Amino acid sequence: METLQFTRPAQAARIQPALVGYVGSGDLEVMVEPLQGSQAEIHIQTSTPGSEIRWRQVIEQIEARIALPAMRMDIHDFAATPGVIRLRIEQAIELASATEAQA
Amino acid sequence: MSELNANFQGNYEGGFIDLSARKRIESLLDSGSMRELLTPFDRLTSPWLEKQGIVPQFDDGVVIARGKLDNKAVVVAAIEGGFQGGSLGEVGGAKIAGLLELAIEENRKGNPTAAVLMLETGGVRLQEANLGLAAIAEIQSAIVELRQYQPVIAVVTGPVGCFGGMSITAGLCSYLIITREGRLGLNGPQVIEQEAGVEEYDSRDRGLIWGLTGGTQRFASGLVDAFVDDDVSALSTSVRDCLAQGVPALHRSDDISAPLTRLQQFDTREQIDAQRARQALTEGKTA
């Protein structure tokens, strides 16, 4: 297991806590919580050692497409492929940014 | 955590097996009544997995909640079979035990509260050994106490099934519901093969394994109370039926003398198959 941390510039935004995915084979769970300020703190625990460059690239790809909201993001990865990782992260941000769901 | 629950509102149709543990609970309870306790945002992860280089999960693979079923108070726990094989460690086990103890307290205070357990589990989490076993023992003693007041209903739908100490837990429940895809057994096929030899039990023989431990067989052998399709509404109806029946006059786990006699008379010299197992378990049975 490897622990990684990235801090990226982000936009202050109203978001709500969100959780997607689970720690099953080839999948990951992504938790998003609001954070004061203008940074996105990304904490990663991954079962795949030596994957720091890959994670950085995935995050850069996402940043090129969407503006990261200020948040703390926690990731528990169980050998997901870059495609699945990107999908889950974008899904979590979308869910966190969605206007309050109807009760 | 209303924000969390808000994300899971919705109607469910179709299969139950593909739903996550959280959505299984949501799909069962009266709409909008689910209140998850100790949510993932409480970050109550296993303190032991990380030390052994294993990635944890925020809910430790167990979701617990309070809610309503046909407007009656219930507590529900669901194990996420995909995380570490649905294994029960210290945290996940304590969550279920604590939930059942909460229901016991409510009943003592005069607030009838039943329980539903969705068991997708290989049993104790080997990495947490004795702590997981202790938690399972706590769950079992809580079930035995709670079932005097209100039904404790277990649901095994697959894909993991219910094995190890948690199969004993399932056996202690007031009612047990299974699907064709659900399996129930004390030891997994490979463990039995290793202990008894491949001639006795070939773990690669899927027909034999499913024939002996699959939902169809368990229902036909009288070890479970209801056999349902993998369908959200069928399952929901079955759970509600069990709840409406109330506390059974005699719990299966208290009715052991007849099954024990049948097992003692069983001739083990011949290779067992599904048909013979069924016969041995039901012979002379009235109910």
Automatic annotation (TrEMBL), chain A:
Name the source's superkingdom.
Bacteria
Subcellular location per UniProt equals:
Cytoplasm
UniProt keyword terms in alphabetical order: Cytoplasm, Phosphoprotein
Tell me one Pfam family matched here.
ACP
Q: Which GO terms describe its cellular component?
A: cytoplasm
**Entry PTM:** Covalently binds the prosthetic group of malonate decarboxylase.
Q: In the record, which positions carry O-(phosphoribosyl dephospho-coenzyme A)serine?
A: S25
Note whether Protein transport occurs among the keywords: no
Q: Which InterPro entries match?
A: Mal_deCO2ase/Cit_lyase_ACP, Malonate_deCO2ase_dsu
Mind listing the GO molecular function terms for this protein?
Answer: acyl carrier activity
Q: What the protein does?
A: Subunit of malonate decarboxylase, it is an acyl carrier protein to which acetyl and malonyl thioester residues are bound via a 2'-(5''-phosphoribosyl)-3'-dephospho-CoA prosthetic group and turn over during the catalytic mechanism.
The family this protein is said to belong to: Belongs to the MdcC family.
Q: Which NCBIfam families match?
A: malonate_delta (TIGR03130)
Record-given protein name: Malonate decarboxylase acyl carrier protein
The organism is Marinobacterium mangrovicola
Gene (name only): mdcC
UniProtKB/TrEMBL annotation, chain B:
Q: Which residues form a coiled coil?
A: none
SUPFAM superfamilies from the entry? ClpP/crotonase (SSF52096)
Gene Ontology molecular function: acetyl-CoA carboxylase activity; carboxy-lyase activity; transferase activity
Q: What is this protein called?
A: Malonate decarboxylase beta subunit
Q: Which domain of life is it from?
A: Bacteria
Q: Which UniProt keywords apply?
A: Transferase
- Domain CoA carboxyltransferase N-terminal: start-end pairs: 1-197
Q: Which InterPro entries match?
A: AcCoA_carboxyl_beta, ClpP/crotonase-like_dom_sf, COA_CT_N, Malonate_beta
Q: Which Pfam families match?
A: Carboxyl_trans
Does the keyword field hold Transcription? Answer: no
- Tell me the Gene Ontology biological-process terms attached to this UniProt entry: carbohydrate metabolic process; fatty acid biosynthetic process; malonyl-CoA biosynthetic process
